[in-house]
Amino acid sequence: MSKEQELFIERIDERKQSALAKLKLLVYGVQDAPELFIKNTNNFKEEHYAYDNGNWGVDKNRLTPSEVLLPGGIVSKLHVRPESPYRLVEDGDRLFIRDDQSFLSEFRFLERPNFWDYKTSSGNPTKNVGQMYGLNALNFNLYSGCEFHKVGKGCKFCSVMATVNRKNPVDITKDVQDIVDTCKLAIEHDNVDYILITGGSYLDRDYEFERHMQVIKAIRPVLPWNGVIKGNISMMPPKDMTKLKLLYDYGVQNPSFNMEVWSSTNFAKICPGKEEYVGFDHVVASLLYLQGIYGPGEVWSNFVAGLVPLEDIKNGFRFMAEHGIVPGANLYHAEVGSSIGKSLGRIDEQYVLSVFSYAAELYHKYGYKPYFNTRVLRNSLTNEIYEGVL
Q1: In this predicted model, what pLDDT tens digit does every residue of 120-131 receive, in sequence order?
Q2: What is the mean pLDDT of residues 75-104?
Q3: What is the C-alpha separation between 281 and 301, in angstroms, rounded?
Q4: Distance from first CA to last CA of the chain, Å, rounded?
Q5: Beta strand pairing call for 230-234 and 194-198
Q6: Per the omega criterion (within 30 degrees of 0), is the bond before 263 cis?
Q7: CA–CA dist 46, 61 (Å, integer)
Q8: What is the pLDDT of residues 215-235, one digit of tens each?
Q9: How far is residue 174 from each of residues 59, 77, 119, 129, measured CA to CA in Å?
Q10: Under 8 Å between Cβ of 55 and 64
Q11: Backbone torsion region of residue 189, taken as left when φ is above 0, otherwise alpha when ψ lies between -120 and 50, otherwise beta
């Protein structure tokens, strides 16, 4: 991390304004700024389209920043939306977010991870294998694809099949040794506080689980795991829930099966593949089983805020919290190539604030904490509202 970025993070007295700016960025996105992006190409971590695409009207071959850093160490995902009232501008040697009336916040581009400058022992560029979420979360999508989509039952909000193709610098299926090598390089050349392993969506969820375990067993010896790096996995549960004890045995600290939506009716409508091949009831039962192993406040389930009525997502949050499971949410954004695309429109600000305020209320009631911090959780306002800066 550069000295300039460290000083920017230390401006904690501006965190309230930064949190407000993040709210606006996630709800409205920003206008495209090709000249600014081209000028700063060497200064930012580029979007490399390993999973989704929220940049409307942007050629994927043109380098576009993935995230921005706001004063006080708050990171926000960047989505290009042509109709956004907000734009990114340069004023001297400083960068700002503004609309037609006023400046909203200063920002900096997130620096490109150093490990992307290297190749694995097989000669594969590490950018094809792993990415850095926010400032310090090393992420691997074990499968940058979706078999549910291949049988016509993909989640309605997801754009993975339209986003990831042969032209992208991303391996759709990651080699285990490449992942191990990438972990070594990231630890050597970057600051890493979290590791996130995402399985993608396989029809055979037992195979998905075995893939996770294969990777976890391989990378643990090369990582300063428990107590230094927090290990998280995100997948669908296997058929045999007793296998889940292996996650605990191998030191995965906060496993998650993401519900995406609540209730069972909404789940079947919005996530038809997960309903048919996994099942709403099985995901819930598996979360409860894991909670019995890990204890309250250690198991995670994520939702997508904006897909269902407010009371439905609040009901899901409450169920999870009352059963010892930490509910979280990412904010819905229209993705290029998803089946709902722009049809759902922009999420209402008050809805967003209500969702995350309710989550924070439950956190404080049950003694839970957000899993990731504000330097990582780029598409959520969980931390900002939990901390009281929004």
Answers
A1: 999 999 999 999
A2: 95
A3: 14
A4: 27
A5: parallel
A6: yes
A7: 11
A8: 999 999 998 876 667 878 899
A9: 25, 24, 14, 6
A10: yes
A11: alpha
